[in-house]
Amino acid sequence: MLVDWPLDRLREYRPDRNEPDDFRAYWRNTLDQARSQAFPARFQPYDAGLVTVECWDVTFAGFGGHPVRGWFLTPRGATGPLPCVVEFIGYGGGRSLPLDWLHWSAAGYAHLVMDTRGQGSNGSLAGDTPDPAPVGGPAVTGFLTRGIADRDGYYYRRVFTDAVRAVETVREHPLVDPDRVVVAGGSQGGGIALAAAGLVEGLAAVVANVPFLCHYRRATEATGAAPYSELTTYLSVHRDAEERVFQTLSYFDGVNFAAHATAPALFSVGLRDAVCPPSTVFAAYNHYAGPRDIRVWPYNGHEGGAVRQRVEQIRFVGEALAGS
Amino acid sequence: MLVDWPLDRLREYRPDRNEPDDFRAYWRNTLDQARSQAFPARFQPYDAGLVTVECWDVTFAGFGGHPVRGWFLTPRGATGPLPCVVEFIGYGGGRSLPLDWLHWSAAGYAHLVMDTRGQGSNGSLAGDTPDPAPVGGPAVTGFLTRGIADRDGYYYRRVFTDAVRAVETVREHPLVDPDRVVVAGGSQGGGIALAAAGLVEGLAAVVANVPFLCHYRRATEATGAAPYSELTTYLSVHRDAEERVFQTLSYFDGVNFAAHATAPALFSVGLRDAVCPPSTVFAAYNHYAGPRDIRVWPYNGHEGGAVRQRVEQIRFVGEALAGS
Amino acid sequence: MLVDWPLDRLREYRPDRNEPDDFRAYWRNTLDQARSQAFPARFQPYDAGLVTVECWDVTFAGFGGHPVRGWFLTPRGATGPLPCVVEFIGYGGGRSLPLDWLHWSAAGYAHLVMDTRGQGSNGSLAGDTPDPAPVGGPAVTGFLTRGIADRDGYYYRRVFTDAVRAVETVREHPLVDPDRVVVAGGSQGGGIALAAAGLVEGLAAVVANVPFLCHYRRATEATGAAPYSELTTYLSVHRDAEERVFQTLSYFDGVNFAAHATAPALFSVGLRDAVCPPSTVFAAYNHYAGPRDIRVWPYNGHEGGAVRQRVEQIRFVGEALAGS
Amino acid sequence: MLVDWPLDRLREYRPDRNEPDDFRAYWRNTLDQARSQAFPARFQPYDAGLVTVECWDVTFAGFGGHPVRGWFLTPRGATGPLPCVVEFIGYGGGRSLPLDWLHWSAAGYAHLVMDTRGQGSNGSLAGDTPDPAPVGGPAVTGFLTRGIADRDGYYYRRVFTDAVRAVETVREHPLVDPDRVVVAGGSQGGGIALAAAGLVEGLAAVVANVPFLCHYRRATEATGAAPYSELTTYLSVHRDAEERVFQTLSYFDGVNFAAHATAPALFSVGLRDAVCPPSTVFAAYNHYAGPRDIRVWPYNGHEGGAVRQRVEQIRFVGEALAGS
Amino acid sequence: MLVDWPLDRLREYRPDRNEPDDFRAYWRNTLDQARSQAFPARFQPYDAGLVTVECWDVTFAGFGGHPVRGWFLTPRGATGPLPCVVEFIGYGGGRSLPLDWLHWSAAGYAHLVMDTRGQGSNGSLAGDTPDPAPVGGPAVTGFLTRGIADRDGYYYRRVFTDAVRAVETVREHPLVDPDRVVVAGGSQGGGIALAAAGLVEGLAAVVANVPFLCHYRRATEATGAAPYSELTTYLSVHRDAEERVFQTLSYFDGVNFAAHATAPALFSVGLRDAVCPPSTVFAAYNHYAGPRDIRVWPYNGHEGGAVRQRVEQIRFVGEALAGS
Amino acid sequence: MLVDWPLDRLREYRPDRNEPDDFRAYWRNTLDQARSQAFPARFQPYDAGLVTVECWDVTFAGFGGHPVRGWFLTPRGATGPLPCVVEFIGYGGGRSLPLDWLHWSAAGYAHLVMDTRGQGSNGSLAGDTPDPAPVGGPAVTGFLTRGIADRDGYYYRRVFTDAVRAVETVREHPLVDPDRVVVAGGSQGGGIALAAAGLVEGLAAVVANVPFLCHYRRATEATGAAPYSELTTYLSVHRDAEERVFQTLSYFDGVNFAAHATAPALFSVGLRDAVCPPSTVFAAYNHYAGPRDIRVWPYNGHEGGAVRQRVEQIRFVGEALAGS
Questions:
Q1: Are strands C205-209 and A205-209 parallel, antiparallel or unpaired?
Q2: Closest by CA position to D308, among listed D297, D321, D322
């Protein structure tokens, strides 16, 4: 059954944004600080037993100069400069092994898969990147409320900074054409991609599938499903924290990042998605400041278009690059 | 928690087999008949937008001369003759799109993914192959009891025949080395691979991950989970059918196919797998007549080793081919 | 809690119908073809160990001349011509044994219970009628999407034709008064009864309890429960099939059959019925072209009025026959 | 999956019984007292709109002289004396309407369906008999622990007494042959039938399908399902009550009633029945003191043989009566 | 997610009340009758092993002169007269032991915890008070429909009368100041407190947290959760009982009691409370005739403010007493 | 139903322990380091609005000199030296407010409730203590696998050290008699109490209710419930980590702490406890090196004896202190 408003209403839903005055300054400072702590990225060749791709085990400096892992894959024998997709991972997953990430290199792209710090122990995708920062105050098990009492200690501040640093890392790689870098992801990965889209200049394209991390307040009203439920749980226990929490979140809302983005973007949404309710996705989509398109999957939940969306992504990115 | 016996007991579990006297004759006749109805396979080039692989949309003649679909992928530019993996799909899934099947070609193999007739509408992998045979008598929704009242009309007779025909199809392909064909799959795909292993001569290797379709009677005792539960449901409704059902199944039991197999085989099992309980997997493994190894994942359920098992498969198949 | 709109809104809900131009021609041809393939029905006496009823094991020719089973019961010693109720069964059930069908003969009617082809393995009512037609393309496990890609191969084309043939069968029985034939059923049986009501001339009455198979598009929006969920699942996997699917369904929608019906009809609906949401029932009811009444059970789910509805049915049918 | 021990072990399971010394005296006194409070039964003709059966709305004096309701059905026109089945109802259900109880009269029997006092509000079968006795001490919602602190106030003391009084009531009816009275029921009804079997002399047959109310202590160990779980819940809250509770229950255990029964009995059991675990059924069966048989349904849960068991009942009762 | 209307709408929701003409007379007679059957309350010293409080095991005469149990606690050494809180317990719970009830005496109050007759076997709080009145007609397992066919036999008639008697009991205790008696409770206890608020003159304050037993008809529409679901279940089985049931309930509706209350009241509500939906709470709150305040917990379910609400209660009661 | 072995077997279950050679040295070093980083504890008077107790908001130095919060309560007016109970909290909970912790001071004890670092956002008990240490490597959401790859960074190293420091803190408080300090807790709190029992000299008594954190390997085999399931999940994702994980855990196993404890201990266990399976509790109990007793609750799950166990605790501790 439909889990949110009818499509007509969704298409017109463009709620007021709540962007802090110092939003841009805050992020400029955050990123500058990270850059100042960065070490040179390491690309260590990795034998995945594959003949059509070359793999590297990547370590680059993320937030706080913390080492962040990833896989870098290229079509074997490609000489570059290649367009490059930087991909972010869904909630709970980690970078796993290169075998799980063959699609973009098969399509002719350099491909960096960024491990999400601290994640990669819950599902099928194991992770390798610790989060050396403390959790901070008490938090709901999960990641959405880690450090939420304070914008500076909030977990996604570190993750979004890692994402920007990932883009900067590939841009310096000799096989990559720095003008043809794409950010992409689904669910949490889509939310991270939106953050990168709002924080990085000159991206060639953005792909945000069924994005998480958008329009938090509406999310708590529209769904009881995890992981947005972590937020509700936190507020149900820490009964005085509401104002502070939403103030923190205003620095990390995909709706606000969307309003600062300029690269062509492809969104997707499932009208029966109770995990990332359609109204939260359209809130970001309708505020997206660059060229934008959205693929609506009317009978799907959080899986959205699945492999069909992958095909559309490849086509969309190809056309965006051709047009750029 | 553990869902079946302790590992020590599992390793020694080799139950009596119940093979019909005419098991081999039955299958010889079945396969001969299918071959007599076969039309030449079609390999139609398919543009999947990929640069590292070449793809073909395959149609070959399965049971009854029915057209069965598949994808054929090779490393782009490979000239062959290549070793080839014929892969069978888990319960409910279909061939989807080539983007979902990049791993074996990336590892340097020709790769045929066989659509499972009638399946591919329930999960994330869409299918394209109708099953033109009638369901036959009333059956539990699902596939396990379709036509189960009669060995000749049983659904898996058609599927297993399709599988043998898939092997025969790739063996005739100019890019494939017919002496280096491997059958592989997980869950239902693993059960189909075991059937092929028992029915086809001269395979180079067999991979059966957490295989389904083995030791049915034990399965109904050891688990209440789908899809083995379809069998229990059928017998709970058709209260006189027990003898007839298990007689039919004796022609389709992975335990019996295993006893006729000779190629080196890699099994895997999850000790917390309530879908395909470990005792049913070890029953087949311990009767396997060829060289055999098994990877035990002590903390996993039906996902078994997931990508880690994929890595092991590639290594195992590589070594098997090197040794052959 | 209420699962759909308030009763006031439901009573006025009469959505636009989507009837294909050739709806009547399509069905005329379908039925003519079935009649042309028919063999004479067989009524074999059956000893159910009962003293107040006589039973026959019935086999009549349904769609494609396929043999369809049923039970025929009459009050023992009745000489006729009797009014006759043709009853259709709920989703998943089969004809079971005569002991399960004593109510209409006890009330003085001849009673034909039609087995639903292919069903009768999932619940408490075993079935005996195979569906000799192939499933056709991949389908969700269940019956609602079998052959849905093509109106000619759609499962319910066969079932609805069987239903018409069942009426024609009893009309030729010497104990039955052909002018006093009633069609009845609940849930799927109610949907089939509506189809028969729209396709058969001269019925004496129609009983459609909590009918399934009505207003499919609304159903996918209003409920996530089985079996309407099969439709959503199908469309979630076969992402291009929407138009084709709803075109097929327009030939099989209770809303359209209702608009062609003329016999007096008794509907029922449960306002907390998440299986067949009230709006889908009222859509058919409000389009019903003959005399009509509906029994609203405000606190019930899909069970509707249960035995209380049975009592009302007997009263309604008695009055309809008295009035005819 | 199997929910209890393997069948071999079940067949030999005959646990020690724990029968109080004054078991027989207790029940003699209880029944004598009820008889002394009895008023003459009333059989009021009831128009159920049926032509093959005659119906009476029955009120007879149960425990404490409390009025207990029931339906009495006979094949219309039967002159008697008829054999008569007294039927008891499953947990939560009430007598509903005659339309729900056509099977025994259809088979040629007089049939009394006894309402279970206080029940008939939870499921599909509405009840009409209040329980005028107080619940007594705090009890788990449900019936199993009502008054359990004291054998004299225990709920099933009243129900079992009602059951004996029901038999005595039909024995005095002019249409009934008092030497051919059968007690029957399933689940709770089977447990009540066992109680009647142990308390009433000269019954012609006993039918106890998947009986409840047997071997309580084992039940709390073997299942967590309702309604036996009410007992566990009670003991989990009233932590000092264990000895007292099991002392009360020793007067109400089907195992003890079975040991005093003499009429031929047909039991049934489902090997996957988590509601009334097989070991509790076999405990009663293996202590049954009269001629006995059991129908094992290996693939069924609490539904046991369903209509198939009904057919067997009719056959068994017919043979028992023929033999008597 | 939000489970009822938005807060704005809730704040204005003041539905028509349905108060019977003889509401006040009915309760006057009921209470007068109970008083005429009362025996003197017993306060038996109880050694709970505690040093800061004194405890008494209380037995007072409730409805029908039935003995009702409770605990009476005072700060050890207090000489009085003390303000006193009479507390009622949530659904299913009993008085447990004094260790569970230390908060009000710790805050300086005399404290009577009233056992709820018949309850205290389902959860963590054991009860000791039988309900000597019969259940009456068939009822859904639970308490909400016990005796619901008749206002005089309805379960909550006895409980509400017990509550009034509890207040009268403490008012006569030498340590208690009868002008400073407060009634309090959460969920069912809140509903009972509202009843007492409407029936007792001169209370000093009322605390009704997330109250149950308010606005029954809306409750059946707004939630499917227990215990309001007992009402829906009853009406789903007893299909003719609707009018009678709601007539009975009109004598026991918190909305009506609220309209007769005069003492200052503190309500609380959880906007995600599916057990006692916010609209039912606001219906009572908005009809409350005395000074009133409500604490809205926007992210909480039925737990409402939990310990935070306890702190607010203590503060509110302290201020109310200071102001009186 | 029973969830583990029968009681007889449990009573004798004393599995081999796996204690590292440097277990004692490891902990000595860990604790010495913490002591070296400690700052003087702060006891800030807190107005909880209570008259029978005095409250202090406590901050003491735990592991790494990190500030750990707690509440300190004494019977108002007590002059000491008082016996003191240090209480640890169940999984997920925090120190909440003093109103939730009145029992020990009511019984005449000084009482320190230690906040569990990082916890207190998931349930009803809010926490106030951040965990300033990083989570370390990827971990399952929850606490059981935080830092599990390395004994030095393991989460419970910090918690257990906090617990020892809590005891040391109260021993220095002027109102506390350092020779009469008791450690107590349930579930996680019971596991922490066992750790303290093994690490602290001269405790007067130990109370470990249904303790968690014991015999981890058995726990993963015996239950699939949270939070032990976090361990299984971790090992299902990090498939090479088994040896390392269990090596880490050998430093944190209640079974090993029990073997070093000397103070009189009261355990409790619920035979239907699927959260902390009885075999894991008995493993610790049967290795406990001091005087020991256990209260078995045969019909309870993880709630164990609840308030009844509280009463027993107070009695046990009273006797232990009297005897010491």
A1: unpaired
A2: D297
Q: Tell me which DSSP letter residue E99 carries.
A: G
Cis omega (within 30 of 0) for bond into E81: yes
Interface membership of B311 toward A (CB under 8 Å) = yes
- Cβ-defined contact of A298 to C235 (cutoff 8 Å): yes
Is this complex scored with an ipTM above 0.85? yes
Element (H, E) at B267: strand B265-270
In chain C, which ranges are E strands? 42-46, 53-61, 67-75, 82-88, 110-114, 131-136, 176-186, 205-209, 265-270, 292-297
Structure tokens at B257: 């196919």
Inform me whether the C-beta atom of residue F232 falls under 8 Å from chain B C-beta atoms. yes
Torsion over CA of D111, D114, D119 and D124, rounded to 10 degrees? 10
SS3 C85: strand
Q: Hey, how many other C-beta atoms are within 10 angstroms of the C-beta on F50?
A: 24
Q: Is-contact D169 D41, C-beta < 8 A?
A: yes
Q: Which two structure tokens, joined as six digits, stand for C145?
A: 């999407």
Beta strands in chain D (DSSP E): 42-46, 53-61, 67-75, 82-88, 110-114, 131-136, 176-186, 205-209, 265-270, 292-297
Query: Residue C192: is its pLDDT beyond 90?
Result: yes
Instruction: Say yes or no for a CB contact (<8 Å) between D139 and E129.
Output: no
Q: Which pLDDT band holds residue F122 (cuts at 50, 70, 90)? A: confident
CB contact burial F200-234 (16+ within 10 A = b; e otherwise): beebbbbbbbbbbbbbbbbbbbbbbbebbbbbbbb
Q: Which of residues 119-158 of E touch F (CB under 8 A)?
A: 124-125
Give the residue numbers of B annotated as catalytic, written as ranges: 187, 273, 302
Give the pLDDT confidence of D202-241 residue by residue, as tens digits.
999 999 999 999 999 999 999 999 999 999 999 999 999 9
pLDDT: which is higher, E278 or F123: E278
Question: Terminus-to-terminus CA distance in chain B, angstroms?
Answer: 40
Listed as ranges, residues in chain A with pLDDT below 70 are: 324
Of A220, A221, A239, the CB nearest to E297: A239
d(CA E113, CA E118): 15
Distance CA D38, CA E67 (A): 31
Q: What is the pLDDT of residues C82-124, one digit of tens each?
A: 999 999 999 999 999 999 999 999 999 999 999 999 999 987 8
Q: Which among E187, E229, E250, E279 is annotated as catalytic?
A: E187
Return d(Cα A1, Cα E188) in angstroms, integer: 34
Q: Which of B51, D238, D39, E73 is nearest to A53 (CA)?
A: B51
Greatest pairwise CA separation for chain D in angstroms: 58
Location of structure tokens 């067999």: B206
Q: Which residues contact C36 (CB under 8 A, 6 or more apart)?
A: none
Q: Checking phi first, is residue D146 left (phi over 0); if not, alpha (psi -120 to 50) or beta?
A: beta
**Whole-angstrom distance, CA of residue B159 vs CA of residue B257:** 14
Rounded to 5 degrees, φ, ψ at C130 are -70, 160
CB of A323 within 8 A of CB of A293? no
pLDDT reported for residue F137: 87
Q: Which residues of B touch A106 (CB under 8 A)?
A: 50-53, 99, 102, 106
pTM for the full predicted model: 0.97
Distance CA D308, CA C126 (A): 10
Nearest CA to E14 out of E214, E302, E155 is that of E214
In whole angstroms, what is the distance from residue D112 CA to residue D166 CA? 8
What DSSP string runs through E255-296?
HHHHTT--S-EEEEEETT-SSS-HHHHHHHHHH--SSEEEEE
- DSSP output for C124-189: SS-----EEEEEES---SSSTTTTTTSGGG-HHHHHHHHHHHHHHHHHTSTTEEEEEEEEEEETHH
Question: What does DSSP say about strands D131-136 and E131-136: parallel, antiparallel, or unpaired?
Answer: antiparallel
Which residue stretches of B12-146 are H helix? 23-36, 103-106
